[in-house]
Design brief:
Distance between the termini: 35 Å
Helix content: 40-55%
Structural class: alpha+beta
Number of helices: 10
Radius of gyration: 21 Å
Number of strands: 10
Low-confidence stretches: none
Strand order of the largest sheet: 1-4-5-8
Strand content: 15-25%
Bound molecules: coenzyme a persulfide
Order of helices and strands: HHHHHEEEEEEEEHEEHHHH
Shape: globular
Length: 379
């Protein structure tokens, strides 16, 4: 059950999402337009610094509130939800967790003010096998020379810096991987073509290329060789936020289907009062609520600093699965009008939520993480 602060926080984010984001959500999708105009207001509300301590200009919240924020934003606009989730969980978090004091002072206040940070793990040939990174960083005269490309980068063209991993040795194991904070204004850093996507079309996704990019030791994040584990630790938290995003999208699909089922009259009564539709709505609501409880509980586990890798993988697996199923059911309830682009949100949500089965680890990878952890516990 949510406490008073969490309930108030939810009201605040919900009101903002309904007033500012919902009216433009369909336009962002149709025009593939990024929500530039709402970045500053979200930064002022603290939505871009939910994991950043006050000393660096942040407005930290507990992880339940963070999940609520991503859920409420995604309920009206998945593109906004993923932008906020990636910035907090994947951009700011690794600096806070693994960075030096100097790096925290350099980067976190900017992130809190609304300058976005991206995360570069995936490459064309290193997707699920994240340890297969081919980007290289070579030490030369005290500086690192970085060469390689990163794919599917959220907020790629907007971010002022990217947390990226590169191979720093010929060690074929993941021990040869190291993390860096790479800044956009550094020579050799370039942004590829913006992707034209099925869903989340308002989010800013592109390749990044590093071509003989020279960075000093002050841009190395943590210890040499720790990069892969740092990324897996980062993804543990990130997966809760992608689950929260899928949850919000699923709730948005239910909102849409419920409103329609309560008002669309056929055979003399609203279609929601026919048992076939009513039972579907009930299943949708029950699955959403079960997912919400799993996500909030895992958020509490993270704050309690107990291991939560298995549970965060479960959150993401469940939420993506529920999101895809529920959004499809919503379109079925709407019938032909549900298939029109831009008329009802269920269609956009159905396209947006598909990514939740893929990004930050596919559903198959979540099952692998869960299964390995289950088997580890057998004596
Ligand atoms: N936290 C901390 N350490 C972890 C960890 C976690 N959650 N999971 C694994 N590790 C450690 C392991 O203990 C192991 O350490 P040792 O070498 O010291 O024993 C090391 O990290 C390597 O782990 P593992 O052997 O499990 O690595 P694998 O290459 O077999 O697979 C998976 C790891 C598949 C789980 C990982 O590559 C993964 O999550 N892939 C998906 C990547 C992804 O989500 N990409 C999308 C990015 S878009 S933002």
């Amino acid at each position: 059950m949510l406490d008073k602060n969490q309930l108030e926080f939810r009201e605040k984010v919900r009101a903002f999402a309904l007033e500012k984001i919902e009216p433009v959500a369909a336009i962002l999708d149709e025009e593939q337009r990024f929500i530039d105009e709402h970045i500053q207001p979200m930064a002022e509300m603290g939505l871009l610094s939910m994991i950043i301590p006050e000393e660096y200009g942040g407005k930290p919240t507990d992880t339940v509130c963070y999940s609520i924020a991503v859920e409420e934003l995604s309920r009206v606009c998945g593109s906004t939800g993923i932008t906020v989730a990636a910035h907090n969980s994947l951009g700011a978090f690794p600096i806070l967790k693994f960075g030096t004091d100097d790096q925290k002072k350099r980067f976190l206040p900017r992130a809190a003010k609304g300058e976005l940070i991206a995360f570069g793990l995936s490459e064309p040939d290193a997707g699920s096998d994240a340890g297969g990174t081919q980007t290289k960083a070579q030490l030369k005269d005290g500086n690192w020379i970085i060469n390689g490309s990163k794919s599917w980068i959220t907020s790629a063209t907007r971010a002022f810096a990217t947390i990226a991993v590169a191979k720093t040795s010929d060690d074929p194991s993941d021990k040869g991987i190291t993390s860096f904070v790479l800044e956009k204004d550094c020579e050799g850093y370039s942004i590829g073509k913006k992707e034209n996507k099925l869903g989340l079309r308002g989010s800013d996704t592109a390749f990044l290329h590093f071509d003989d990019m020279k960075v000093g030791p002050e841009n190395l994040l943590g210890e040499i060789g720790d990069g892969f584990k740092q990324m897996l630790i980062t993804l543990d938290g990130g997966r809760i936020s992608i689950a929260a995003m899928a949850l919000g999208l699923a709730q948005g699909a239910l909102d849409c289907a419920l409103q329609y089922a309560a008002t669309r009259v056929q055979f003399g009564k609203p279609i929601g009062h026919f048992q076939g539709i009513g039972h579907t709505l009930a299943d949708m609501a029950a699955e959403i609520e079960a997912t919400r409880q799993l996500i909030y509980n895992t958020s509490c586990m993270k704050d309690a600093k107990v291991p939560f890798s298995r549970e965060s993988a479960m959150c993401k697996l469940m939420a993506a699965d529920v999101g895809v199923r529920v959004s499809s059911q919503a379109i079925t309830i709407l019938g032909a009008v549900g298939c029109l682009t831009g008329k009802y949100s269920a269609e956009r949500i159905w396209r947006d939520v598909k990514l939740c089965e893929i990004g930050e680890g596919t559903s198959e990878i979540q099952r692998l993480v869960i299964a390995r952890d289950l088997l580890k516990s057998v004596k």
